[in-house]
């Protein structure tokens, strides 16, 4: 899941981003509205955590820009203006959810995951393929009933491959979906993660390398 945190209080923005990364999400951060607008224009985010009072470009304007896009991200407004009137105003702008400050971080995580599931292009609740069952909410994965012990990145890569199956995903696509904007596009981290994931899944190999296209889940391993 790719998330953008837009918050002008840098320490709060960084704390939220770090906490979400610990939950396995790929997170970018913007400290003002103009920077956020630039990021939204070039990256397909699943959810935007949006402060309302932003320098450069007000959060209300940015919210309208996001929700009028062709394939819009889901928006949760995260702001100190938490009265019922403020919440109604935020939702009228097109926000999908509204959470007032201060907030419990665990609630923010649950709301982000809920919004991602509600997105029109959202994937199924449980992802399956080649004998694998993966639940992104419960953070569990099994192969032929055997529990898989995966790192956060291995889990997210497997989720993206299952969601895309039978189509392949390139290393660049996986970098965009699983890692954040700080990932080096020339790094071998995707190949290394795929190698570890293959070992954890065990034989027969579930992930196929497609020359010139990337990686995909084998479709000829479905259990009878």
Automatic annotation (TrEMBL):
DNA-binding region extent: 124-219
Every OmpR/PhoB-type domain range: 124-219
Occurrences of domain Response regulatory (ranges): 2-116
Modified residues (4-aspartylphosphate): 51
Superkingdom, taxonomy of origin: Bacteria
Record keywords: DNA-binding, Phosphoprotein
InterPro entries according to UniProt: CheY-like_superfamily, OmpR/PhoB-type_DNA-bd, Sig_transdc_resp-reg_C-effctor, Sig_transdc_resp-reg_receiver, WalR-like, WH-like_DNA-bd_sf
Pfam families assigned to the protein according to its UniProt record, in alphabetical order: Response_reg, Trans_reg_C
Protein name in UniProt: Response regulator transcription factor
Organism this protein belongs to: Plantactinospora siamensis
Organism lineage: Bacteria, Bacillati, Actinomycetota, Actinomycetes, Micromonosporales
């Amino acid at each position: 899941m790719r998330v953008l945190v837009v918050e002008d209080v840098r320490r709060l923005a960084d704390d939220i981003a770090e906490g979400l990364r610990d939950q396995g999400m790929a997170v970018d951060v913007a400290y003002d509205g103009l920077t956020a607008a630039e990021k939204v224009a070039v990256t397909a985010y699943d959810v935007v955590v949006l402060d309302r009072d932003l320098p450069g470009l007000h959060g209300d304007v940015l919210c309208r820009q996001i929700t009028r896009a062709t394939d819009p991200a889901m928006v949760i407004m995260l702001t100190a203006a938490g009265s019922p009137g403020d919440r109604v105003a935020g939702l009228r702008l097109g926000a999908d959810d509204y959470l007032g400050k201060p907030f419990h971080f665990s609630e923010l995580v649950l709301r982000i995951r809920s919004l991602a599931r509600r997105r029109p292009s959202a994937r199924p609740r449980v992802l399956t393929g080649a004998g694998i069952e993966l639940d992104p909410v419960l953070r569990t994965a099994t192969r032929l009933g055997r529990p898989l012990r995966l790192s956060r990145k291995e889990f997210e890569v497997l989720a993206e491959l299952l969601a895309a199956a039978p189509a392949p995903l390139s290393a660049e696509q996986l970098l965009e979906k699983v890692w954040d904007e700080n990932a080096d596009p020339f790094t071998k981290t995707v190949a290394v993660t795929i190698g570890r994931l293959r070992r954890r899944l065990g034989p027969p190999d579930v992930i196929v390398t497609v020359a010139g296209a990337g990686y995909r889940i084998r479709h000829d391993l479905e259990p009878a």
